[in-house]
Amino acid sequence: MRLLLVEDDNHVAAALSAMLSKHGFEVAHARSGEEALQALLPDSGAPFGVVLLDLGLPDQDGFEVCGKIRKRTATPVIMVTARADVRSRIHGLNLGADDYVVKPYDTMELLARIHAVSRRTAAHDPGHGPEESPDGSHPPLRLGPVTIELPTRQVSVNGTTVSLTRKEFDLLALLAQRPGVVFRREQIISEVWRTSWEGTGRTLEVHIASLRSKLRMPALIETVRGVGYRLVAPAG
């Protein structure tokens, strides 16, 4: 995925670019709002999958840049800033930002948020949905002995069907579509339960424990302490 990093601090940009490149991103660096807007012009090369936008830019306020970006492209925008107050977050989201990350942040959380916004964008883009078979059906997700049939919502382990509740299936399918990616607890609650984290944390823990038990694969879903969960694809 091509990613546009809008950051005026060269030291911060260098460190972040190195981390993102290590995780498979092709990073372009813009040092100002104008550079960012020029990079997003249609004739500026292959499109970007995500824009990481710092708000403290030298030529114009990051909020203003976000508004201009949203007028010319639907590319997901993640604001990355030290402004932690609620009003700034609300203002950024109202301008069209897809997410808002406060510095300092955990790099794995930032990666999870990048994958989350790109996945949500793909889900709303008919040209970038799940890969289809020649007959138009979606192929099953295969993770070692685990097979997940998305259209029929069926799960099997070594050919034996495993009965899951609706939420258990939704949770497993979410994690399985991005093996190895850490999903934040808040993100899982939002996407599976369509609600906020408050008061729902225990429900998530119970569903994770139930999935591990029903699949008889306790190591399949790994707990990332203090962040969330990720699916570890088994061998074979």
TrEMBL record:
SMART domains: REC (SM00448), Trans_reg_C (SM00862). InterPro entries: CheY-like_superfamily, OmpR/PhoB-type_DNA-bd, Sig_transdc_resp-reg_receiver, WalR-like, WH-like_DNA-bd_sf. Residues 121-142 are annotated as: Disordered. Residues 122-131 have a biased composition (Basic and acidic residues). Gene3D superfamilies: 3.40.50.2300, 6.10.250.690, Winged helix-like DNA-binding domain superfamily/Winged helix DNA-binding domain (1.10.10.10). The keyword tRNA-binding does not apply. The modification 4-aspartylphosphate is found at D54. Residues 2-118 form the Response regulatory domain. Residues 138-233 bind DNA. CDD domains: trans_reg_C. Residues 138-233 form the OmpR/PhoB-type domain. The keyword Phosphoprotein applies. Keywords: DNA-binding, Phosphoprotein, Transcription, Transcription regulation. This is Sensory transduction protein RegX3. It comes from Streptomyces asiaticus subsp. ignotus.
